[in-house]
C-alpha cells in the first residue's frame, strides 16, 4: 500500500508536466513563432515534435517508478480520451499542435498503451518503453531537423541520422539489443507503408519492439 501511495505521489508532477507541455508551453510557442512570421504548418509541426520529446519522453521514467503498468497505462488512456475529445468540438480543438489532416497523435498514444502493456505482461518493461522512446524522442529530433531544413513535413536522411544518434543513446539502456533495435527504428522511420496509410507512430514502435524482445529473450 505504501508503495502504491509513493507511485501515486510521483505521478502528480508527471501529470502536471504533461499538461503544462500540451496545454501551456506549446500553445505559447505557437503564438511566439507565429509572431515571428513562421508559416502555420511549420509552427504546428515544431509543436508536435516538442510534445513528442518533452511529454512523450517521460515514458523513460515508467520502469523506474512503476512496478505495475496500471497507473501509466491508465493515464495514457485518459490522455488519449482528452486528445480525441478535442477533435470532436471546434472550440476544444488544440490548433497549436493538432491538424485536421491527420490524427497521428492518437496513434502514438494508442501504441504507448499497447507497448507498455506488452512490456509488463512479458516481464520486461524496458522492452515496451524503449520502442516508445525511440518514437517520442528519436522521431522528435528527426522532425525538428527536417522542419529546420525544409520548412515542411518530409522525409530526409539528415533527420534519420539525428534519430539514429538519439536512439543509439537511448537504446544503450538495454545494451547491444537496445542499440540495434534503436538503429533499425531510425531506418524504418524513413519509409512509408501502404502509401502512408500506416504511419510511423505505429511501424517504429512495433518493429523495434519485436526486434528488441527477440534479441533480449529469444536469440
List the keywords.
0% strand; 219 residues; globular; mainly alpha
Structural overview:
With 219 residues, the chain is mainly alpha-helical. The chain has one domain. 74% of the residues lie in helices and 0% in strands. It has 9 helices and no strands. It has helices spanning 2-35, 40-54, 62-65, 70-86, 104-121, 125-150, 157-171, 175-188, 200-217. The mean pLDDT is 91.
* Sheet of most strands: none
Give the ordered list of helices and strands: HHHHHHHHH
Number of helices: 9
Beta-strand residue fraction:
under 5%
Query: What is the 3D shape?
Result: globular
Task: Work out the radius of gyration.
Answer: 17 Å
Report how far apart the termini are: 38 Å
* Number of discrete domains: 1
Helix-residue proportion: over 70%
Given the helix and strand composition, which structural class is it?
A: mainly alpha
Question: What integer is the average pLDDT?
Answer: 91
- Give me the count of strands: 0
Low-confidence parts, pLDDT < 50 over ≥5 residues? Answer: none
Amino acid at each position: 500500500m505504501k508503495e502504491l501511495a509513493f507511485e501515486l505521489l510521483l505521478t502528480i508532477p508527471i501529470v502536471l508536466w504533461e499538461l503544462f507541455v500540451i496545454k501551456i508551453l506549446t500553445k505559447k510557442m505557437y503564438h511566439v513563432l507565429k509572431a515571428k512570421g513562421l508559416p502555420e504548418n511549420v509552427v504546428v509541426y515544431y509543436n508536435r515534435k516538442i510534445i513528442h520529446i518533452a511529454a512523450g519522453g517521460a515514458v523513460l521514467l515508467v520502469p523506474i517508478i512503476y512496478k505495475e503498468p496500471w497507473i501509466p497505462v491508465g493515464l495514457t488512456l485518459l490522455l488519449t480520451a482528452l486528445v480525441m475529445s478535442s477533435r470532436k468540438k471546434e472550440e476544444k480543438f488544440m490548433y497549436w499542435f493538432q491538424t485536421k489532416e491527420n490524427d497521428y497523435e492518437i496513434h502514438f498514444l494508442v501504441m504507448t498503451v499497447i507497448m507498455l502493456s506488452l512490456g509488463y505482461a512479458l516481464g520486461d518493461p524496458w522492452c515496451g518503453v524503449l520502442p516508445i522512446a525511440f518514437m517520442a524522442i528519436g522521431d522528435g529530433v528527426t522532425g525538428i531537423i527536417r522542419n529546420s531544413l525544409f520548412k515542411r513535413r518530409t522525409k530526409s536522411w539528415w533527420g534519420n541520422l539525428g534519430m539514429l544518434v538519439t536512439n543509439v543513446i537511448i537504446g544503450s539502456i538495454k545494451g547491444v539489443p537496445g542499440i540495434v533495435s534503436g538503429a533499425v527504428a531510425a531506418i524504418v522511420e524513413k519509409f512509408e507503408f501502404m502509401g502512408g496509410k500506416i504511419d510511423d507512430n505505429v511501424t517504429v514502435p512495433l518493429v523495434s519492439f519485436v526486434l528488441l524482445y527477440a534479441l533480449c529473450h529469444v536469440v
